[in-house]
Amino acid sequence: MIGHRLALWRWNRSYTTAVANADVVVCGGGISGTSIAYHLAKRGKKVALVEKDSIGCSGATGLSAGLVSAPIFWQDTSLQAIAQASLDLYSHLANTCKFRYVKCGRTYLASSMANEILLRRMYSRGVVHNDKVELLDCQSEMLERWPFLQTEDVQLALYSPEDVALDPVALCQHLALIAKDHGALIYESNPVLEVHIGDEKQVYGVSTKMGFIETSHFVDAAGIWAGSHLVKALPHQHIQTAAYPCTYSYIHTSKLPTGSVSDMTPIFNDLDGNIMLRTTSFKTLCAGFAEESVRPLARQTGSAAPWQHPEPDWNIFDSNLEKLISRCPMLGDCNHGDLIVGMEAYTPDKLPTIGESSQAKGYWVMCGMNGQGLSLAGGLGKILGELMCESQSSTADVARVDVGRFIDLHANSQYLIGRTPEVAALTYSNLYHSHQCHTARNLRMAPIYHQLRDAGAIFGEIMGYERPLWFEKTPKSERNALMSGQDSLVGKPEWFERVASEYEACRERVGLMDMSSFSKYDITGEDAVEYLQFLCSANVDEPIGTTVYTGMQHQKGGYVTDCTLSRLGDKKFFMVAPTIQQERVLVWMKKWQSILKARVHVQDVTGAYTALDLIGPSSRYLMGDITGLSMSSNDFPTFRCQEINIGMATGIRAISVTHCGELGWVIYIPNEVAQNVYEKILEAGKEYSLQHAGYYTLRQLRIEKFYVYWGQDINATVTPVECGRLFRVDFKKDFIGKKALEEQVERGVNKRFVQLLVDGHDKETDPWPQGGETILKDGRPVGLTTSAAYGFTLGCQVCIGYVENKEFGVSPEFVSSGHFEIDIAGKRFTCRLNVHSPSLPMISSEHPLHYRPTQ
Question: Which residues form the Aminomethyltransferase C-terminal domain (predicted)?
Fold first, then answer.
């Protein structure tokens, strides 16, 4: 192509030595590397882009089919924003640089009820932004539009008009050209030899084949080679990344023997067959993602050894080919085809990884694109540029893609080899919060795991940790206790009756939950109080024995995390944060420890304690029995902490906070005595009909009580003002984000956190809300739900989420007037709104002080 040749001609390829210094060195000339180089150069940064081969011509980008998924594909709003930013960038470049860019759209096909509901949910969120999104349920109409497809078994088709097919090589080269026009230097055939780090593990330079480049920032966007670069000063001599390469295969063959295809024929994704087809007037590309056809790559020896590229294997691809020909019989008439094996890096959770590594300052990563590199890299490059230049992103919440969501175990190669083929098989699957993988399980477990399993626990995994989701009534000795897949989207899930029973126990008697996966930290030192006062927006300088619920805000007022802080001594605190925050919070606290030069020691003690949550009106009596102490509301009120003994076991931390609004205690037990204490609790609990309960019960309880969950309901884009937690903020002291919150209070907010009680919903036959549903007021979209659960006391589906009014703000009148609905998979339901926690009847006569999370 002309644009392709122009790109090769316009940058100087005669370099024999590298530039002496740069603000940022970007490694990788694929779509990730060229995107971040483009965005940084446009921000005025001096960028050196180094590529071991040629820009856009190697790795996953070079073998890419050039297909870009529209935002409608993603359930998560942050990923939608990232995908939209990518499309906006590519569209702009195509208009100005003139390379192949075809807005052909995409058609998703569903042959099962489960995937039909997925498409209806996609349609519900897509039609809000694009009225050209279509649903087709008439097979004759499908056959008329796409006569080369077999559609007899297709129940529903969704047409998304925004999907694109483009030239990925030309795109990368134009991104590099524009970066060069803004001062970037481009070095091809120049592999990175070593990344140098010095004092305090700070990057200070990069050695390349052409020479040394002095820099304080290195971006590893090297695709399947990310994390392979030599860093001698680190224990493993390289950065550990939670991404691993696997193969994917596709067939390149001739045009279908029909006149009914053109370049504008949409891309086809058969969700039930897990296959993809792109047919044009001159070629046909088709792929399949059966798990058995995906292979993790192997190396000879060492992290720097080259990946072994497997040869195409028609026998392995056969199951995909059979489905492709079944869906498009004309493929069988093509007289030849090349089977191409590509390589892509996959992460344990099917989401890309960006951000600054905690292992070295100034070492940034942008990798693990999971087969969606083109769809997301344009937006991710923009976000990473914002993070590097401003510390915060204004484009989207980055928590879902942040490198800090992983811990060391996720970078273990055996773990990744076990998990990533399954992830690769899910490339075009739409996953919800309930989804559980079936591979690489039983890695992190509480000491009482086997006792919980014997009691009937069905486990779900989070951060590698197995935690009970619910308990079977009569567990069988031989059974699979690990949940895999995701909950049904229509009608009552299989666990409904069991969770109802567990919920009843927690509300009327006493329930026992394993909360061991929660992140836990000990914070000690001379400056502990002053340090935590500055990091936390609530006042944590309370008497010894007090527990405080607080947020940690960033400079713009959004939540870095929420947590509880228990004061164990004058200069000693115990902090509990969400499970998914284990690494991210530790990095944040250590960052500010360094900035403030605080004399504190922050220690991650997550794996040192088993946490058991005793919930319900009888918990006070049970706790009294097993401790021999008075647990009255005077002697041990809510939001208090105390070190206790249970039987012969000592060193147990008891905290009167249940994380769901019910009366109770979480007890943090040293692991070596956890089984002994667990057995004591079970024995003493017989008198009060104690019952095991799982995490699903906690979810039902907290949503009904209007409690938030970090990562779903609150995140870095949400402030305490917007989510109704302002009363927990102490403006009498200084803290990170104080000025931003004061300004927001003064000017008002344009979104508000609400609870929605859904009317007219049949829990037996209707689709269930999952989070991400559109909220409508008088027929106009005004927000999205974030979490949902069935309210057993309220007797209806309960959602929580945000309503928004960017033009006039969200006043009390806005919330109290008008007709509100939510759209669940294309079906609208009337809702009643709460802006405060509902007052639910309780067996106990006392309501805990922390009962109302909003006011």
Answer: 751-835
